[in-house]
Amino acid sequence: MKIRFSAVVLAATLACSSLATAQAQNAARVYDNGPVWTVAYIETKPGMLNDYMAYIAGPYAALQEAAKKRGEVLDYKVLSVDSPRDNEPNLILMVQFKNMGVFDRSLAEGEKDDAAVFGSLAGSRQSQVKRQDMRVLRGEVLTRELRFIK
User: Fold this and answer.
1) Sign of dihedral through CA atoms 42, 85, 96, 106?
2) pLDDT block averages, 10 residues each, the chain of length 150
3) Hey, what's the torsion of the CAs at 96, 102, 106, 109, to 10 degrees?
4) How far is the CA of 46 from the CAs of 57, 134, 138, in angstroms?
5) What is the pTM of this model?
6) How far apart are CA 64 and CA 62, in angstroms?
7) Strand, coil or helix: what is 15?
8) CA angle at residue 118 from 113 to 123, to 5 degrees?
């Protein structure tokens, strides 16, 4: 009798759980794909915040503005982190891209932009090396915004 009762309870539990799963799978999608964001976590080295911000306000902003003119970048932001702990970022750089397709640009197109901003590809490479003296990249993520359907 105990085995029969346990079998009935098990069957009822499985039936209820499968109904809940079926209901969850039928939920209407209330969101759609939005723009794409890159988020970079930057820790500036001691005494280098002003130098790094000069780079952000200069060449970095010029590259973002050129991409905005092409319609690839929608917006970009620099956020300051309040009271970071040791080895944590004190700046967050966010760039909002139109879609994932903007990442399919050829390397030659990117090099052309770099040469225009830095004077040459060699100048671009030198700038990359100089940035290492000012900051540490503590991480970077590529995300897609999900927008609610109205």
Assistant:
1) positive
2) 58 61 76 97 97 97 96 98 95 97 92 90 89 96 96
3) -60
4) 19, 8, 15
5) 0.78
6) 5
7) helix
8) 120
